[in-house]
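To the wet lab folks,

You asked to see what we're planning to order before we commit. Fair enough. Below is the target structure as tokens, and below that is the sequence we designed to fit it. If anything looks off to you, flag it before the synthesis order goes out.
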């Protein structure tokens, strides 16, 4: 077992956000063993000074902490309990930090299953995107036992600007992330709708962007995503399919609670339409293409 200030980390998921997180752990003196199906991702991590393993179990057998920066609950399940899964290889008393966006009920059950195996769970979904992952300035919405927070301290400090401690039970962090994703998805969809209206009516869309950015209608997502629309640049930073998934989780949670969520449902339909048209792997700002296709116009505008 290593120094508690720099635990050995098995890091599963070297993708858009995970690679930046794992690199920051290296910079802060952790030994990090990366796992990812992509050879390019593994090569990028080894070039930064990390080591890699073929399976989560191989990485976990010498680790104190397993960090999961994967996409969804199915991947969390496979990484921990599937063939070559990490849960059976991690030492008793080890910690799992779950950073994916998953249903709150899944996170609660996961905590119980890991406790049976002798492990702690920190339910710690994250927000901030690739840029903040690379700069070590993510926001974590975390819940778990005090011991889990203590074991995760050096990892969270190396990767975050803000950690919200939301309670002692797994599931609370995922619930708050679900609320965040409702707002994020709806804000992207409404930003697309607003810019579509401006473009269809013949307004200078770059001027509209400047006005809204300084007005009450602005949002973080408007400011961040509308430039992609103006530049007609949909290189994926966060893909359309992510919000098909995340707004689906939002609606599933509302269904469990018997709470209608009509704004989230409308946004979900828009992202589904974009994915169905073949734009699922593009940046989520490409949801504006649904409007462009319906109205035969472009939101993009040449830079002045």
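Sequence we intend to order:
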């Amino acid at each position: 077992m290593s120094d508690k200030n720099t635990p050995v980390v098995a890091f599963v998921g070297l993708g858009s956000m995970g690679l930046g997180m794992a690199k920051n752990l290296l910079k802060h003196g952790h030994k990090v063993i990366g796992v990812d199906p992509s050879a390019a991702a593994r090569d990028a991590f080894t070039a930064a000074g990390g080591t890699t393993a073929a399976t989560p179990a191989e990485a976990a057998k010498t680790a104190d902490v397993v960090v999961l920066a994967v996409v969804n609950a199915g991947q969390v399940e496979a990484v921990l309990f599937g063939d070559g899964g990490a849960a059976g290889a991690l030492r008793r008393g080890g910690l799992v930090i779950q950073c994916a966006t998953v249903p709150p009920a899944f996170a609660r059950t996961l905590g119980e299953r890991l406790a049976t195996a002798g492990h702690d769970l920190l339910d710690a979904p994250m927000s901030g995107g690739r840029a903040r992952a690379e700069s070590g300035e993510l926001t974590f919405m975390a819940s778990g036992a005090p011991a889990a927070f203590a074991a995760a301290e050096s990892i969270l400090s190396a990767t975050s600007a803000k950690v919200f401690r939301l309670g002692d039970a797994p599931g609370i962090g995922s619930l708050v992330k679900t609320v965040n994703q409702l707002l994020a998805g709806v804000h992207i969809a409404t930003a697309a709708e607003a810019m579509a209206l401006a473009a269809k009516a013949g307004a200078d869309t770059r001027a509209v962007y400047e006005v809204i950015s300084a007005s009450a209608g602005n949002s973080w997502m408007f400011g961040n995503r509308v430039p992609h629309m103006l530049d007609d640049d949909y290189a994926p930073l966060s893909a359309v399919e992510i919000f098909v998934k995340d707004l689906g989780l939002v609606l599933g949670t509302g269904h469990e609670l018997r709470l209608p969520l009509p704004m989230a449902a409308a946004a979900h339909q828009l992202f589904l339409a974009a994915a169905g048209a073949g734009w699922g792997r593009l940046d989520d700002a490409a949801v504006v293409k649904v409007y462009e296709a319906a109205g035969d116009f472009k939101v993009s505008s040449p830079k002045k």
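Structural context that might help your review: The beta strands are 9-12, 32-35, 51-52, 65-68, 95-98, 120-123, 126-127, 138-142, 160-165. Residues 182 and 250 are 6 Å apart (CA to CA).

Thanks,
Computational group
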